[in-house]
Amino acid sequence: KMAAGSSGGPGAPCRHHAQLGACESRAKYREGWRPRAVKVYTINLESRYLLIQGVPALGVMKELVEQFALYGAIEEYHALDEYPAEQFTEVYLIKFKKLQCARVAKKKMDERSFFGSLLHVCYAPEFETVQETREKLQDRRKYIAKATNQRDCFVLKKVEGPKKTASKNSQHDCPWSTSGSHVASDSDPACFTSSHGVSHNTVYPSGNANQSLLTSQHYDNSCAEISGYFGQNTSLTPSVHPGGHLPPAPLMQHRTVPAYNGIDRFMPRTTHLQERKRKREEGNKFSFIGTSEDNTEVVIGPQLPEIPKVDMDDESLNTSATLIRNKLKEVADSVSTTSVEKPESSSAKPLVKQRRRI
Amino acid sequence: MELGRLEYLQALVTEFQVTDSTGNKRRCSLALSVSSVSSHTRRFSFAEAKEQVLANLANFAYDPSNYEYLRQLQVLDLFLDMLTEDSETLVEFAIGGLCNLCLDKINKEYILEANGVEPIINCLSSSNEETVVSAVTTLMFLTTPQSRAQTTALPVVECMLRFSLSANTRLSNLASIFLQDYCSPPQVEEARNLSKHTAVGIPLPKD
């Protein structure tokens, strides 16, 4: 359910929807590869809701949503008929399940051509309900507490509604500048850390991390950061997920923040690409299964079958290669009896090229 | 954080001294090395350059991995200083930066120690929507058992009451959260009674 529009509320053009003129005076060393307006992003500006302007009025809503769904699960979407739109274009609202998905989608889809028209994508926090805003702020709290290893019990009088994901920012796709360069000049200067909040050292949790979370049962005190991990109704009992369970998702344990050593943080570009790919696959996996809960909750209980992983050691992957190899061998050996069909590796195992998932 | 980022940050921030209105020398750490901005197609103003740098820093402040560096470079002081600037844009960016980084415990303590609450409260009466919205959130984030007497002082609560009735959803949402989660019912009641009688302590933003 969407926030009901108050008078002049959601649906009315807001200043923060306006596309600012590109900044032309930026110094060379700070120039991104695209002209960007000067803007500061705070948690108030960001939202799970995205406003998309400039959609050509060709009846392409389905395609639009499919395109955005690449970045994460979408909760709701619809056209905004009252919103002022340029001739022959429409305006849509898309609500993502997670803020970080909205963030990535916005970054990727803004200024993208879509059916011949240039899309303008921006956040639309004015569509949030009070509770959604509240949760957004709480998620931000938890993220900071986790990222800085601080258990800061903030002052809240009561426990709010179902505490959502503890680490809304955890599952970041790393939307680094696509140029991948680590030098400032190539990346978006306003989003140097890849549009805020991304840890480059995304690490899958060790078993210990999960352990310590499991033992904490103080979900009704004011340490929301811990309680957030469990929602309101879990301790060691499995929470009921209509859609079944997922394996404990990579609790994107934000790395501990020690005194900085710049060198430690340097990650070569290829690693980023692989990280992104892996995270994308993880993200897609979850959206296939259709998790409706945050996937950082530690879940105990029978798991739904995962999407079958490709077994890289499975010989069937190499059927064609093996066939060809054997054929070649046959031809080379002609009458030799050593050309034997040996699917399993012989001592001189040919280099098995791993199939890459596309 | 890569080496490049540190250098980049440092390039943004250099120290110089300014004399403020009371004749005191104050450290104001916002300047650009001239060479970095000189090579440009179009003439820019120093004011614009300042805005860009401040915006960059404020956006950096969103990522906790930058906090140590930002503290070293005294960017927190910079943000606080900029709150009293004439330029609406500089104020907007500065309070945005504070909003972004004030949840971190060390930053929070630093800001509170530096008497940052007062200039932030003053931002509530700005005519700039982003400034006000950032200020509301920052006050929430800065509320601790020790600071709440300040952050939820009567004029503030009274202001939030008015904001909660605003047609601006973002503002009303935040104000409602402030009242519900950070103020006690007696506080809200007191503020309600106050607004019935006297002139307000904090003027409404113009927009």
UniProtKB/TrEMBL annotation, chain A:
Swiss-Prot/TrEMBL keywords: mRNA processing, mRNA splicing, RNA-binding, Spliceosome
Keyword RNA-binding on entry: yes
GO molecular function: RNA binding
InterPro entries: RBD_domain_sf (IPR035979), RBM48 (IPR039599), RBM48_RRM (IPR034264)
Cellular component terms (Gene Ontology): nucleoplasm; spliceosomal complex
GO aspect biological process, one term: mRNA processing
Region described as Disordered: 330-358
Highest taxon of the lineage: Eukaryota
Compositionally biased intervals (Polar residues): 334-348
Biological role stated in the UniProt entry: As a component of the minor spliceosome, involved in the splicing of U12-type introns in pre-mRNAs.
Similarity annotation: Belongs to the RBM48 family.
Protein name: RNA-binding protein 48
Annotated organism of origin: Malurus elegans
Automatic annotation (TrEMBL), chain B:
Gene3D superfamilies: Leucine-rich Repeat Variant (1.25.10.10)
Protein name: ARMC7 protein
Entry-linked InterPro entries: ARM-like, ARM-type_fold, Armadillo, ARMC7
Top-rank lineage group of the source organism: Eukaryota
SUPFAM superfamilies, sorted: ARM repeat (SSF48371)
Organism per entry: Malurus elegans (Red-winged fairywren)
